Amino acid sequence: MSEQRNSVSVIGLGPMGQAMVRALLKAGVEVTVWNRSTAKVEAMVALGAKAAATVAEALDANEVSVVSLTHYAAMYDVLGQAVDHLPGKVIANLSSDSPEHARKGAEWVRSHGAQFISGGVMSAGDNIEHPASYIFYSGPREVFDAHADLLRPLSPQEYLGTDDGLAQVFYQGLLTTFHPWLLAFDQATAMISKAGHSVAQFVPYAIRSSEAYPYFMQEFSVANENGGWAEVASLKMMDAGAQHIIEASEEVGVDATLSHAAQAFWRKAVAASEEAGRAVSTYELMRDAK
Fold first, then answer.
1. Angstrom distance (rounded) from CA 254 to CA 48
2. Cα–Cα distance for residue pair 89/60, rounded to 1 Å
3. Over the stretch 130-151, which tens digit does the pLDDT of each residue have?
4. Which of 263, 177, 269 is closest to 217 using CA atoms?
5. How far is CA 10 from the centre of its chain?
6. Nearest by Cα to 189 from 207, 169, 213
7. Each residue of 25-56: pLDDT tens digit?
8. Which residues, listed in sequence order, are joined to residue 122 by a DSSP beta bridge?
9. Please, are residues 45 and 22 in contact by the beta-carbon 8 Å criterion?
10. At 69, is the secondary structure helix, strand, or coil?
11. Is residue 130 a contact partner of residue 120, using CB atoms and an 8 Å limit?
């Protein structure tokens, strides 16, 4: 078997895996693909990829295999079918999971004789070519450096450090902010719509408001490095503000579960402040959760 420098295998052809195959092919990389669903394999073959009938065949085809699965448990299931084919290979697992699962996954892969790097794909959905898309990587620097050029077509790269779980720490941290934003935007636009007004008219103001978010992130990051921002009067004001959002939503029949959760945190911080005799921030409550 001869291994080609500008070739890679992609294991897992969900929306993200398919996007990766397209990006690699577009960059002139030879790609071998494997997936449980043959229909997805055939779609990629139609674009120029090569099909592997088994996981072992996909691993044998190239030195580097990119894994794009639902979670790390799926990696054990998939690669476990061909552990005898792992020695000497490089596994770049770009699946989402917890940092500790990534660390244990790295240990498992290395125990079978392969090298490992982990990644977290920050993209606009599965649009990895979007200007805002990039990938966090972590793991041994020498492994990343040796294969960075091959993986570069997938998205701009951000190498974070040697901790195998670090890419997932940053990736999950950003999703922590993104998921509530998605739900909040749904609630806000539902409120506008149910109140009988135009969502299209509202959106430019939402975008304009979001331009202040970098300022708040910078200000609160400094505060959080020093224990978190908190003034009891301000915490009470946020509680009252959350109540107004709840009422505005529920008046028109919109689910305000998210705002109730936010209000519960403000109220918890007020109660903790009164008990401690000092201002206690929501950051402190989350950081030191028991």
1. 48
2. 9
3. 999 999 999 999 999 999 999 9
4. 177
5. 19
6. 207
7. 999 999 999 999 899 999 999 999 999 999 99
8. 134
9. no
10. coil
11. no
In this prediction, residue 5 carries a pLDDT of 66
- Give Dmax (Cα) for the chain: 71
Angle among Cα 112, 118, 124 to the nearest 5 degrees reads 145
Residue with tokens 């979007």: 130
Q: HEC profile for 101-151? A: HHHHHHHHHHHCCCEEEEEEEECECCECCCCCCEEEEECCHHHHHHHHHHH
What are 166's two structure tokens?
Answer: 């670090």
Q: What does the DSSP assignment read for 211-279?
A: TTHHHHHHHHHHHHHTT----HHHHHHHHHHHHHHHHHHHHTT---HHHHHHHHHHHHHHHHHHHHTS-
Determine which helix (DSSP H) or strand (DSSP E) holds 42, and give its type and residue range: helix 38-45
Given a cut of 70, whether residue 173 has pLDDT beyond it is yes
Cβ count within 10 A of residue 160: 18
Cross-strand bridge partners of residue 135: 121, 157
Please return the burial class of 61, using the count of CB atoms within 10 Å of its CB with bins 0-12, 13-18 and 19+: buried
Residue with token string 């806000």: 188
pLDDT value, residue 1: 36
Instruction: State the residue for tokens 């476990």.
Output: 80
41, 17 contact by CB (below 8 A):
no
- Tell me the two tokens of residue 119: 């990644």
Under a CB-based contact definition with an 8 Å cutoff, are residues 151 and 68 in contact? no
